[in-house]
């Protein structure tokens, strides 16, 4: 493989960004992940709370499990299983009815296996972000991308105007960083402003390994 980009910034340490970073690093590309949250996981994050009687409680506040019907994804999951990052969930799933304080709507056994992260759903992202060839920077919100024609590189800046370095490839794993919907919802401009000149390459890799999004997209704009 002769990669065009050798140093790539990945924005977001959710499952898309983490899997993408891992795939790039395995192909010899130097990767830096920038994540605005304190830790990895995104919508597969794990939260910690202390109860009134001082007990520590952990819970997954996004996806509780995932399934796969794709052979490539299943091969990847087997690798995660071998590393002890995920396990098949063999118990029932139900919904908790707040009014009756009872579990209802127990799911019948589905066709696909259900997997959960061990000990929490963020375990996969956490492990992937620590793989060789990947540097992970948390608590950093990328605020601007600028293509520097002379340098043949992207210059990244955080929301406070702090320089984050230059990269010859950028992966934005969260479309809301660009989306106009961000403005519709918040009334503010999207956090990621992009300054682009002619003759640039933006590689947008979107790796989504969930049942309702099973597709991988590689676009050259
Ligand atoms: C309550 C809930 C239940 C769900 N249940 C299921 C389920 O049962 N099964 C299933 O398959 N899926 C489920 N999902 C969906 C699943 O969690 C998401 O599809 C998936 O986790 C999205 O991953 P992602 O990496 O694409 O995005 P995200 O997890 O959103 O990751 C994007 C990351 O980018 C970071 N970021 C964004 N902008 C910037 C910036 N400018 N600079 C730095 N960092 C930035 C964000 O902080 C975030 O961590 C559920 C989601 C929720 C919320």
From TrEMBL:
PANTHER family: FAD/NAD(P)-BINDING OXIDOREDUCTASE FAMILY PROTEIN, FAD_NAD(P)-BINDING OXIDOREDUCTASE FAMILY PROTEIN. Signal peptide: none annotated. The chain crosses the membrane at residues 200-217. InterPro entries: FAD/NAD-bd_sf (IPR036188). Keywords: Membrane, Transmembrane, Transmembrane helix. This is Amine oxidase domain-containing protein. It holds the Pfam family NAD_binding_8. It comes from Lactuca sativa (Garden lettuce).
């Amino acid at each position: 493989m002769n990669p065009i980009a050798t140093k790539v910034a990945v924005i977001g340490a959710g499952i898309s960004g983490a899997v993408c970073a891992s795939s790039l690093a395995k192909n010899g590309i130097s990767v830096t992940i920038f994540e605005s949250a304190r830790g990895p996981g995104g919508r597969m994050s794990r939260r910690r709370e202390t109860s009134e009687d001082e007990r520590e409680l952990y819970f997954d506040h996004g996806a509780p499990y995932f399934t796969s019907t794709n052979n490539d994804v299943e091969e990847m999951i087997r690798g995660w299983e071998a590393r002890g990052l995920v396990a098949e969930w063999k118990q029932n799933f139900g919904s908790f009815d707040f009014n009756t304080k009872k579990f209802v709507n127990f799911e019948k056994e589905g066709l696909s296996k259900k997997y959960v992260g061990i000990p929490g759903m963020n375990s996969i992202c956490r492990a992937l972000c620590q793989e060789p060839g990947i540097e992970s920077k948390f608590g950093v919100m990328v605020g601007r991308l600028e293509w520097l024609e002379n340098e043949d590189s992207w210059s990244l800046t955080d929301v406070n105007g702090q320089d984050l370095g230059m990269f010859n490839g950028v992966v934005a794993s969260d479309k809301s960083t660009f989306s106009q919907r961000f403005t519709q919802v918040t009334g503010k401009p999207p956090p990621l402003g992009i300054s682009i000149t002619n003759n640039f390459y933006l590689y947008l890799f979107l790796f989504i390994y969930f049942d309702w999004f099973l597709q991988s997209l590689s676009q050259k704009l």
